[in-house]
Design a protein that fits this description.
This protein has 263 residues and is an alpha/beta fold. The protein has a single domain, classed as Class I glutamine amidotransferase (GATase) domain (Rossmann fold). Helices cover 19% and strands 31% of the residues. The chain is built from five helices and 15 strands. The protein has a nine-stranded mixed β-sheet, sandwiched between helices. Strands 5-6 form a two-stranded antiparallel ribbon. A two-stranded antiparallel sheet has the order 7-10. The two termini are 31 Å apart.
Length: 263
Amino acid sequence: MVGRINAYFVCGGKYHDIDFPRIEILRLLNEKERIRVRIAENYHDIEAITAADFLITYAVDLIPTPSEQEAISAWLATGRKWFALHGTNSILQVEGGKCKTPRTAPVFMHMLGSQFIAHPPIAQYTVEVVEPSHPLVEGLPGHFQVLDELYLAEQYEGNHVLLQTHFNGMAEAGFEEADWRTDDPRPVMYLREHGKGEVLYFTLGHRRGRYDMEPFTSDYPNVDPGAWIQPSFYELLRRGIEWSAGVGQWSKQGKATCRQPVV
């Protein structure tokens, strides 16, 4: 199969160093000669989104309007792919020193398969490979460590989990829904069908610099690099892009090839 593949990349939102993932994801997309990208900070250009072959998003508290949600849902159901990263499933409402996560976009969240609710303080944690033979995660160690936000989310039925972690405790004090004292696994990467289309959700990829927490502070004391410092994270991003675009192992004319171990 030859020819151009059109991607639409939505990258924007709050409380993160959005510039860094914008640059890095564009660089990874550019590694594939056939992919051409349009980029925006929101979902408003529905005509352009629904003309694309796949959608990729790195967003935080960035929600399409109801009409935009319906249009994306219809487009995805025709057989398109959506690679959703990090906080794409977040709605954040800060009141009285607490962060609320209202359920005000059910169509959007059910497309994505989950809604972010909270996270514990950033710390190193263990990610477990649930299905080691799947091409998206093949070659990863059975367990590996990351230093990133551990997403605690409301999960919807029908997600095919590839990576997960475990957390039983309390989230950061700033979140209204802070009690997560259950033994439920916490998905890190999963696939979800939507009509004839499919979503790949990957929660890793937090990034925050000194100047990303306005209006709360003009100079945030820490720099949070997240999983962006790990080569294995970039390998998983590359695989997600190949899956989205239908190239590499997912080419209709190509045969699946065994992945080399990821270190």
